[in-house]
Amino acid sequence: MTKKYFGTDGIRGRVGDALITPEFVMRLGYAAGHVLTNMDSHLAKGAHPAVLIGKDTRISGYMFEAALEAGLSAAGVDVLLTGPMPTPAVAYLTRALRAQAGIVISASHNPYYDNGIKFFSSQGTKLPDDVEHAIEAALDEPMQVMESARLGKARRIDDAAGRYVEFCKSTFPNHLDLRGLKIVLDCAHGATYHVAPPVFHELGAEIVAIGNKPDGLNINEQVGSTHPQALQKAVVEHGADLGIAFDGDGDRVMMVAADGQLLDGDQLLYIIAAARQQEGALAGGVIGTLMTNLALEHRLAAMHIPFARAKVGDRYVLELLNQNGWQLGGENSGHILTLDKHSSGDGIIAALQVLHALMQSGKTLNQLLAEIPLYPQVLINVKTAKKIDLANHAEIQAAVKSAEDALAGSGRVLLRASGTEPKIRVMVEGENQQQVQALAERIAETVAAAAA
């Protein structure tokens, strides 16, 4: 069933447009409170359900925090406020504080003028589709405010940051520390600005922090995992051993080696998987996505590590991990899940798993990077004026087959429609950059002609 409001990761858009308004968010809070709390059969009779709210650092977060609080209170739900907090911290604190649900106000890696709302269940996991459908149905019903005696209350969780710092540190082995490492942390002027530095400092590292002065308008602005150039420059300038960049809400991570080389999510996944295999701690295999570089698949196959691809999106990675009973997966964007450590993707915890691998191997990031050179990957976005049935379009399929024949098993072709824009994404990867570029352009021209 098609969803009316929810996308692949909650509800997101430009502030003031369509759904991202105080009025809609208040109604969303009421609908979510009504649905989520009625699902909990463990509440004592007469007890108020509780929902935790966290946010990133964009200025509109104040407005939407107040709107959600009002809607939830009207539904008879108590509200626990954390202030600025990474998305994975909200997932953890929802479980730790036994809340009925968690809500994050964030547009992740988007600019400050966007915002969004995403939800966690009481177990710290993304909501299943049927619950999102139920919330959408409740949104279409009128608000019926509880009588005054049953309205919810709100209170701030003063030690939320400290709780999360200790949780992150607990995922790193007790017998190891980070003494002797100089690390540059890029917090994207986002939600990790006040929690990531203490985590790595308290584990013994010397920390240089950048992107750690949010003003409500500078989140993700030329910093963070989507703009790693600032981190690459800082690592070299400070003579650091490595750098770590998070996105605005802290669920993604990229890393930089001492010489400024960038490691994406595929390379970080490899480092964690290889270390776990060596320790005998890799449960099953690794989940990637349709966009995962073929080099990772080939490298894992050579190591006899099972690998499977999910649709693009961390929720689909999580679904396939649970289906297979595996623990490790992620996307090349740096959204990495280690389910033995946390129920959701967590940039800080993923970085700690990479550092664990470094300490265990005795190697540098540069040395580990040399073990998995990625294949050239060309992505071309083709604007379309009409919907195209890619699977059954003769000319497009002929162009794809011609490219696959040319790659002769040493590369792959992927065509997919964008879920948010009128575009067809054409991706070709292989071992030869010039060949990959030429093949991608040829397919893109065929798609463009069909879409005209």
Short description:
This protein has 452 residues and is an alpha/beta fold.
What descriptive keywords fit this protein?
20% strand, 18 strands, five-stranded mixed beta sheet, 452 residues, 14 helices, single chain, six-stranded mixed beta sheet, alpha/beta, globular
Could you give the topology of this structure?
Elements lengths: L10 E4 L7 H17 L11 E6 L5 H14 L3 E7 L2 H10 L4 E5 L8 E8 L7 H11 L14 E3 L3 H11 L11 E5 L9 H7 L3 E5 L18 H10 L3 E5 L6 E5 L4 E2 L1 H15 L6 E4 L4 H9 L4 E4 L3 H11 L3 E3 L5 E3 L8 H15 L3 H5 L7 E7 L10 H14 L4 E6 L5 E7 L3 H19 L1
Parallel strand pairs: 2-3, 2-4, 3-6, 7-8, 7-9, 12-13, 12-14
Antiparallel strand pairs: 1-5, 4-5, 9-10, 10-11, 14-15, 16-18, 17-18
Describe this structure in words.
By secondary structure, the chain is α/β, with parallel strands linked by helices. The chain has helices at residues 22-38, 61-74, 87-96, 129-139, 160-170, 196-202, 229-238, 265-279, 294-302, 314-324, 347-361, 365-369, 394-407, 433-451, and strands spanning 11-14, 50-55, 78-84, 101-105, 114-121, 154-156, 182-186, 206-210, 242-246, 253-257, 262-263, 286-289, 307-310, 328-330, 336-338, 377-383, 412-417, 423-429. The protein is 37% helix and 20% strand. It has a 6-stranded mixed beta sheet with strand order 1-5-4-2-3-6, sandwiched between helices. It has a 5-stranded mixed beta sheet with strand order 8-7-9-10-11, with helices on both faces. Strands 13-12-14-15 form a 4-stranded mixed beta sheet, sandwiched between helices. Helix 6 links the parallel strand 7 (182-186) and strand 8. Helix 1 (22-38) packs across helix 2 (61-74), helix 8 packs across helix 11 and helix 13 packs antiparallel against helix 14 (433-451).
